[in-house]
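Memo to structure team: turn this sequence into structure tokens by end of day. - J.P.
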Amino acid sequence: MSTRRRGAKDPSEPPGEERRRQDRRPRDQKPPDTLPHERTTEDERLLESVEDIRAIGTDAWRIFRIMGEFVEGFEEMSEIGKAVSIFGSARVGPEDPIYQRCVETARLLGEAGFAIITGGGPGIMEAANRGAKLASTPSVGCNIELPFEQRSNDFLDVSIDFRYFFVRKTMFVKYAQAFVIFPGGYGTLDELFEALTLIQTNKVRDFPVVLFGSAYWKGLVDWLRGTTAAEGKIAPADLDLVLITDDPAEVARHIVRRYEGRHARDRARYDSRGVDERSGL
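Reply from structure team:
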């Protein structure tokens, strides 16, 4: 499958400028640890507090760019079929055992018929897309405009560039049947808790979430159980919304089982509705 790359190029940029900007950071260079960065992003400009009436008018027109980004994402993502979104740190290299576990997890999911969706960058994202390639399943990267350039990894069939985090996050949920969360930082935690909030509030249903790496997640899970649930901030049942494992095969089995169960229930509801309609009820 040939790589398709779409999105995030500013038509006002001189030809080739986007590629030159991407090439300024060596491929093996990790994102810088310090802020601020000189380059502003569309997200930053959108979230700026403005008082000037002319700036307010500009904000109103920005909705068309946001709408266009949604349309482009929907067009590209609707073609990939059933999929799993995989998240984790961009700061993990191929020498890390968790990288290899992620490759294996994505490969097994791909062999089970799922496309793999990631943020399209290095680290765990690269590992997941690499595993997808090994399984010959669609490998999708949803990249994001950042103050520092994040180059797409080399294992993508479809690479889509987004300017806005909230549009990109919609694609991760809308076109996935499950999330697999590997060890990561703020961005990874953001995706985890957004998914759990959507499940808890019934915005999405029958949506498996897997935490991979029991030792890494132990502190967080202990805090959720011992503090958040103990003080009544979440229900004890909310702790059952995730599976925690260290086994790639268990990840694949769990997601396949949940997916098949969901579709069996959907078929039963459809058949029941058809019987009711035929009987005139």
